[in-house]
Amino acid sequence: MSAETKSPLRIPPMIQKTEKQPASAERREVLETNPWHMAMQQLDRAGTKMNMEPLVLERLRHCKRILTVSVPVRMDDGTLRVFEGYRIQHNLDRGPAKGGIRFHPQVSLDEVKALAFWMTMKCSVVNLPYGGAKGGIICDPKKMSIGELERMTRRYTSEISILIGPDKDIPAPDVNTNEQIMGWIMDTYSMTIGYSCPGVVTGKPIDVGGSLGRREATGRGVFYVTRELACARGFDLRKAPVAIQGFGNVGSNAAKVFAEHGCKVVGISDVGGGLYDPKGLDIDEIMLYRAKNDTIADYPKAEHVAADKFVELPCEILVPAAMENTITAENAPRVKAKYIVEGANGPTTNEADRVLNQRGVVVVPDILANAGGVTVSYFEWVQDIQSFFWSEKEINARLQDIIVKAFREVEEVAQREKVDLRLAAFMVGLTRLAKAVRIRGTFP
């Protein structure tokens, strides 16, 4: 044996040293911010409180279908890139699957699983005849051309077409996806089956079967929930400064609706940073500025705030409307808001939730607070099936009715059971889900 190959000690394969595991504190941090771990903790907490039978909980701990697809795309420079995409259906006991599609570099399987689970709960809380689904592609759409985005969207649609359909699974916009992308999905699916099928997707352009009011629906729903919260908890919404994290579709429309109703929006932010003015921001002016500059970070008429410090701004109402895990155990003690209304999915970690509850901060959970989007998506789906479309006034009135009824049901459970609003919302949703699971049983 040569000197190069001689080894004084060979470790048997079964006991070879593996990569160093995270220290306990690091591991706790990883688990705290893992969306699927968060979702299952929330499920277990509600199931324990309700003494829910194991059959129901075991069903909900597993996604019904998980599809991982390769999405090859010819880029503008002639090279070929292969992106990874997902479409996950969590539960179908109450109806066909419903959930958005996001394009983002941080998309992961656990994130999409959690988002699909939260969609199941959300649809149940507001009593829509849907189960939960979600989809995503790991990509950075800001670095892609329109042509590259279209080719990627169409190939992804082709790959997931075995799951989607107006009676099976109806996608919608989410982070970094919009009406045009939904239009491409609708067209690709329609070409696949040989006839136009507007009901396969919601959040489409109005000219191909979209609904009035859909673009603003999630932000409008956030306002309706906050207004009901003010009535229930006895404070004047017009005197309560509002800070909104995120200035995408949800955040910008929420800011606009709050301002239209005479509320003072003192803070807004996007990925580049935040703006703060205790006297109130001019939302219409800032939206025009963003349209010209693609960001609000350099807007000159307000104090600038670092993005990672935004949730600590002085305000009474904080609306996290960006991404998951923006309020954590680390920054929760410094949150100054008395009320948090979750415009995004999963913005508050479970550890942060405990801290906020101990401090007396009221959190309106995502599965209630941002359900306006899926509610008007449901309206769009119904309109497409009937080929009969409603006025925007009628849509907004129906949206308000559903959101107000859902909030009052959750608030009633919270007061009766003396629990926080997140647990109360899960209890409302689980009650409906459990009935469906029991009625349908297990096949075979």
Globally, the shape reads: globular
Which fold name is given in CATH as the topology of the domain at 217-369? Rossmann fold
Measured distance between first and last alpha carbons: 62 Å
The computed structural class is alpha/beta
Kindly state the percentage of residues in helix: 40-55%
Proportion of strand residues: 15-25%
User: Main β-sheet: number of strands, strand sense, barrel status?
Assistant: 7 strands, mixed
CATH level-4 homologous superfamily of the domain at 217-369? NAD(P)-binding Rossmann-like Domain
Rounded radius of gyration (Å): 23 Å
Strand order of the largest sheet: 9-8-7-6-10-11-12
Q: Count of DSSP helices?
A: 14
Outline the low-pLDDT stretches. 1-21
Mean pLDDT: 92
Provide structural commentary.
Helix content is 44%, strand content 15%. The protein is built from 14 helices and 12 strands. Among the domains are: 56-207, 3-Layer(aba) Sandwich (Rossmann fold), CATH 3.40.50; 217-369, Rossmann fold, CATH 3.40.50. α5 (146-160) packs across α6, α12 (372-386) crosses α13 (392-417) and α13 (392-417) packs across α14 (421-440). Mean pLDDT is 92; it is low at 1-21. By secondary structure, it is an alpha/beta fold. The strands form 2 sheets. A 7-stranded mixed beta sheet has the order 9-8-7-6-10-11-12, sandwiched between helices. Strands 1-2-4-3-5 form a 5-stranded mixed beta sheet, sandwiched between helices.
